[in-house]
Amino acid sequence: MGRPSKKAERTEQILQALQRCVARYGLEGSTLERIAEEAGLQRSLLRHFAGNRNELVQQLADRVIAQSDQQWAEFINDLPEKNVTTALLDGLFTEDNSDAEFILVIESLIFAAGQDEPLRIKMQGWMHRFTNDMKTILLRDNQSVEDEHLDAIAFGLVSIYFNLDSLAPLNMSAQYRPSARRAAELLINTLNPATNKPCKHIRS
């Protein structure tokens, strides 16, 4: 495989810098000056290698979504076929698996999508895939549960997952991580309360 072109290398450098800036300052606060400083490049080179601001945002969304899809696919592939609850909760709520920067970037893109239709379509597709995959995982151990119930639990797990790391700027994610995991566990247990036993969890 040949070496990436200078343009590809510079574009990746700029997008990495943009992602760090968005996690730190939000999308609106990620000015071209801040992005250039973070990337160690002159501002004029941003447009040359990565396009205008709107093009930068679209490329960032593509980059983050691709990273998320790949990591999520690998996570699902490593889950057991049955008795997936503990492994699922570990993957979602163990501190070692936490990625607050990613969550903050995703939330910034979702917020910006309200005024950007192409971005909204991308983020809607990503959210649908994530929630549907969560439902498919839950279905492994809950074949007889009503579809509507599975939809609700899948959405609840996704919501808890995102809300937890959104507390990172307040330095409160670690404080609420055990409670978030416990809340997710209680939700899952409603799928089959007669047979589901509480999973091991870390008490606060």
From TrEMBL:
GO molecular function term, any single one: DNA binding
Annotated signal sequence range: none
SUPFAM superfamilies per UniProt: Homeodomain-like (SSF46689)
Domain of life, source organism: Bacteria
InterPro entries membership: Homeodomain-like_sf (IPR009057), HTH_TetR (IPR001647)
Keywords for this protein: DNA-binding
Domain HTH tetR-type: 8-68
Residue ranges: DNA binding: 31-50
Protein name (record): TetR family transcriptional regulator
